[in-house]
Write a structure and sequence with these properties.
heterodimer; A: 602 residues; alpha+beta; 8-stranded antiparallel sheet; 6-stranded mixed sheet; 33 strands; B: alpha/beta; pyruvate-formate lyase- activating enzyme; Arc Repressor Mutant, subunit A; 3-stranded antiparallel sheet; 16 helices
Chain lengths: 602, 417
């Protein structure tokens, strides 16, 4: 480690939309500063989860410390703090931005500003960060740098006269960016003499060493052997190891104000060292924690059930292990008459939900049956009691209900002007209240709506993408609860009510949703040897019905020497499909049926 | 030594192999339902070229037989089956050479069943007589339907008159061990037409009948038409009724319904095909053919060019066949069930209990209990046996055999986890 004064530290992050080239740019910095040797270079060094690489998005943040010799001849320490790039993780983004003094705003020169970028740049502006605009991919044929710069100026009010033209892929503009970081991003305040305050911007659980905390020393200093206190969780630990991220861990003796690094202290659970918590010294604590700490609050819920009941304990172990690393994940046991034993799980948003499901299936080899996502409803009963419901099947019967309230969000959609009509139709169909429409260039528009979160957690995102040919982007935040005329829609398969298919809908939409849902289930549930009625009802009133005709013939006529392997494979495939089915009485219902509500043609 | 043990096992297993399938891929054209490995040779001019191509194929076949026999010797073949394709297109000398090679390599036993598939319109009386001289003693005639319009719609080259001529020639040659192939559930086929087909077939009194419910196979013309919504298949209920009618008519006429799609008068079941269903080993020769040797099923390349290249490699490398694979008992159990439940005799649960453990026999009974209550599965006690014999009921159980097998596969795959 080089000994560099705080005045030559620069802490920065990169704000960019998915695919706008953040990871490529970060790789270039690592290469340019010789932080990672060429031969060690994996593409997109910062995204180190397999899932992230596949999806090309950053979920868990990472940091990298680089030594850069600037044109003034001095050596600077540049700390890049990566941010996750998805709406579900805006709290994590805000914490990593707080750990910086500056941010690069990277915008694809042909795509322009996206809703996500905008939301994050507002977060950065709130923190008074120095923002350096960078136009990436300027070498591509579709690049329109002038237009995009105008857009940035219009949308954010940011002076773009010194914007840097770059191509991260070709290495163009990298030196200019590094110089700009050195010259424009302020150095951290030198508060080494004050009591320790360290901001946790990420943490993860290591099987052998416990929680590894990534943090920024805001004030004071910390060294190996110090007894630290986490001000939100109120837990105390002795520091076993401390160091910097380069981007792999390099141990150090001490970290002082302005530095970014990691810390190991035999912390048992990630909940004890959550993002946003403040680290101080136990024997010389700071007066107040750093501002901005928030409890993680799950917004989207679904039931997760093992397709084979024997796997229940494996599922619990899997969730326990993921939870070690994911403080935003919540779960509690759920028993469903249709699905048996499983868990009701809460997530920050849809992507978070998908990631957890995929990791359970992939890393813990589980076959899951997942129910359609839902939100938390707030219900006032007519005896005055107020209850919260995260599972539609728990909604009490109508005669007991006084008011049902549902969460609302503020939604911003940025779209090329020609798709405005289709997107407004979509928002309208999803019970949206139109608030505003802004043009920041003649051809790009922001639509602002308020709408129920329940309408967004289904297939809203996919619909938005398909109605805008992929060009629109969105960002939302929770704004509170509002009462609505909501009813529970029950689904019966072969005369049996299936609790996992129950849903809460607005009364005005109940009929059309019920009708398309029974039709969809008719398509998705395989035929059996008997006729299967499917019905949708509100209370005792049946509002829609359909039936699945019986299977009359399921035989393979030819099976000779050459057919045997093929026939066996076919049966194995069918048996495997069965594994993902749940028996509702005598009817086998496939996993897709429980997600049918996401695929309705509304 | 491990190696010696291997060889020892190997020879033990191979000496049990007593059946050989020979694939003759040549066809005048491809039928619309067919997904077999075939080589279309057309029926226009160029007879010499055609025959040359066939001789070339027969040479490779013989070479494969000889090289295989070196690795996997046998002490006698009880059944030989020439399937296709259209084996009756093959020049007689080529057939002679193949049979002679088989005999030299493995010894065809005296009472061996030697079958050949023949198509109406591809042979004459003289050819049948030559077959008889070669020792071929069982003939499977690809009739499929007796209605010219249906025959045309499924891409067959022969017509009603060709069928009658073919049967007359079989009679004239004094051949009484023959079978007719028929297909039900064809596009536009009515129940009345199928009944007519069965009547026509019964008038001939063949000692054996194969009646197949049409399968729409991947990659066939029928599949493409079906996907385009242009294949007027009869309703599923009607196709099921055709299957029931077949069972009713043929058993009334004295035929044993010995396998899902096969019927025979007493003493005329196809011995070769029973080898498959009883999960016994067999040789397989020719393009696209599958062999089951040393516990491993190997399928040969499906084009002539690749097959020729493959045969060449047999000589100088350890080929795919050259390994004894200890088969996973789980796989063996599933195959035994999948194949055995095709047969009228069903599966002997005591044998299963002995080979795979009595917990398996018990599990099978548990899984199938709901189907027994529906009378799709029948468990017949056997004298002096603990578990009894399990079979699918005829015709209702057989009609949904895939559903029942899927349930068994599901149960045992779950158990494996």
């Amino acid at each position: 480690m080089t000994n560099v004064p705080v005045s030559r530290f620069r802490n920065f992050s990169i704000i960019a939309h998915i695919d706008h080239g953040k990871s490529t740019l970060a790789d270039q910095f690592l290469r340019w500063t010789d932080t990672v040797k060429e031969r060690e270079m994996k593409q997109q060094f910062l995204d180190n989860m397999e899932l992230e690489r596949e999806r090309g998005i950053t979920i868990k943040l990472q940091a990298a410390r680089m030594n850069y010799t600037a044109k003034d001849g001095e050596t600077y320490v540049l700390n890049l703090i990566d941010t996750p790039g998805h709406v579900d993780f805006s709290y994590e983004v805000s914490r990593s931005l707080v750990a910086c003094e500056g941010a690069l705003l990277v915008v694809d020169a042909s795509q322009g500003v996206e809703a996500q970028t905008l939301a994050n740049i507002y977060l950065a502006l709130e923190q008074d960060l120095e923002i350096i605009p960078v136009l990436n991919k300027v070498d591509l044929p579709g690049a329109e740098p002038e237009k995009v710069l105008e857009e940035i100026e219009e949308a954010i009010g940011l002076d773009c006269s010194n914007a840097i033209m770059a191509s991260a892929k070709m290495g163009k503009g990298i030196d200019e960016i590094l110089e700009a970081i050195v010259n424009l991003v302020p150095s951290p305040a030198d508060t080494t003499e004050e009591p320790l305050r360290g901001l946790i911007f990420d943490s993860y659980y290591d099987l052998y060493r416990g929680v590894i905390v990534y943090f920024r020393v805001v004030d004071g200093k910390v060294k190996v052997g110090d007894r630290i206190r986490l001000m939100a969780s109120k837990k105390e630990y002795e520091v076993d190891e401390i160091g910097i991220l380069s981007p792999t861990k390099v141990a150090a003796e001490e970290l002082h104000a302005g530095e970014v690094g990691y810390l190991v202290a035999s912390i048992k659970a990630i909940e004890d060292a959550r993002v946003g918590d403040t680290i101080t010294l136990a024997n010389q604590p700071a007066n107040s924690p750093l501002p901005g700490y928030k409890e993680a609050k799950p917004m989207v819920f679904c039931g997760l059930f093992p397709s084979s009941t024997d796997d229940y304990s494996d599922l619990r172990d899997g969730l326990d292990k993921l939870k070690l690393n994911d403080s935003a994940l919540s779960y509690e046991p759920e028993t469903s008459s249709a699905m048996g034993f499983g868990f009701r799980c809460g997530f920050l948003g849809l992507l978070h939900m998908e990631i957890v499901q995929e990791r359970l299936e992939r890393e813990y080899d589980l076959d899951l049956v997942v129910t359609a996502p839902s939100v938390i409803y707030r219900v006032m009963l007519n005896d005055g009691e107020i209850i919260e419901i995260d599972n539609p099947s728990q909604l009490p019967p109508p005669q007991k209900l006084e008011v049902v309230e549902e969460p609302y969000i503020h939604l911003e959609v940025i779209t090329p002007e020609e798709y405005v009509g289709g997107l407004m139709e979509l928002c309208q169909a999803r019970r949206g209240d139109f608030k505003d429409m802004k043009y920041f260039t003649p051809t790009r528009t922001t639509l602002i709506y308020e709408l129920p979160l329940a309408e967004v957690v289904t297939d809203f995102f996919d619909q938005m993408k398909s109605r805008s040919r992929g060009y629109a982007s969105m960002e939302y935040n929770f704004i509170g609860y509002r009462p609505n005329d909501l009813v529970k829609l029950d689904i019966m398969v072969n005369q049996e009510s299936v609790d996992s298919l129950a849903m809460i809908v607005h009364r005005d939409k109940a009929f059309s949703v019920g009708k398309s849902l029974v039709e969809k289930l008719k398509e998705l549930i395989p035929r059996q040897q008997f006729k299967i009625p499917i019905q949708a009802s509100i209370g005792n009133r049946i509002i829609a019905s359909a039936h699945i005709p019986p299977l009359r013939k399921d035989v393979l006529a030819k099976c000779y020497g050459g057919d045997i392997s093929r026939k066996k494979k076919l049966l194995q495939k069918q048996a495997k499909g069965k594994k993902r089915m749940k028996a509702i009485g005598t009817v086998d219902v496939p996993q897709e049926a429980f997600m049918a509500v996401l695929k309705l043609d509304q | 030594m491990a190696t010696d043990d291997c060889l020892h096992n190997n020879s033990l297993m191979i000496s049990g192999t007593r059946a050989a399938y020979i694939h003759i891929p040549f066809c005048r054209r491809r039928c619309y339902y067919c997904d077999f490995p075939v080589a279309v040779v057309g029926d226009g001019g160029g007879r010499l070229n055609r025959e040359q191509a066939m001789r070339r194929y027969a040479e490779s076949l013989c070479r494969e037989i000889v090289l295989t026999a070196r690795e996997f010797p046998a002490t006698g073949l009880d059944t030989v089956f020439f399937g296709g394709g259209t084996p009756s297109l093959l020049p007689i000398e080529a057939l002679d050479a193949i049979l002679a090679t088989l005999d030299r390599s493995f010894a065809i036993t005296e009472n061996a069943e030697i079958s050949i598939e023949i198509d109406p319109g591809t042979f004459d009386l003289a050819q049948l007589k030559s077959y008889q001289q070669l020792g071929i003693n069982r003939y499977s005639l690809g009739v499929q339907a007796f209605q010219d319009d249906l025959l045309a719609q499924i891409g067959r080259t022969h017509r009603y008159d060709d069928i009658n001529r073919a049967i007359a020639q079989l009679r004239q040659a004094g051949i009484d061990n023959f079978s007719l192939d028929l297909i039900s559930g064809l596009p536009n086929q009515t129940l009345a037409q199928w009944e007519n087909t069965l009547e026509n077939a019964l008038r001939v009194s063949p000692p054996h009948l194969s009646c197949y419910d049409l399968i729409i196979e991947a990659g066939t013309a029928f599949e493409r038409q079906a996907e385009a919504g242009k294949l007027p298949l009869p309703p599923e209920e009607t196709a099921a009724d055709m299957y029931r009618l077949t069972q009713q008519r043929l058993t009334q006429a004295g035929y044993e319904h010995y396998e899902i799609s096969n019927y025979a008068l007493p003493g005329y079941q196809c011995r070769h095909n029973r080898v498959y269903w009883e999960n016994q080993p067999y040789y397989g020769f020719g393009m696209g053919a599958t062999s089951f040797l040393g516990g491993k099923r190997v399928t040969r390349p499906r084009t002539r060019r690749e097959y020729y290249a493959w045969v060449e490699t047999l000589n100088h490398r350890e080929n795919d066949l050259n390994r004894v694979w200890e088969r996973d008992p789980h796989d063996q159990l599933l195959e035994t069930l999948m194949l055995g439940l095709r047969l009228q005799q069903g599966v002997n649960l005591d044998a299963i209990a002995q080979q795979f453990g009595s917990d398996k026999a018990k599990r099978i009974i548990d899984v199938l209990t709901p189907y027994r209550q529906q009378n799709w599965v029948d468990l017949a006690p056997q004298n002096g046996q603990q578990w009894g014999r399990l079979r699918l009921s005829d015709p209702e159980g057989l009609l949904v055999s895939n559903t029942i097998l899927t349930q068994l596969f599901h149960a045992f795959t779950e158990e494996m986890r």
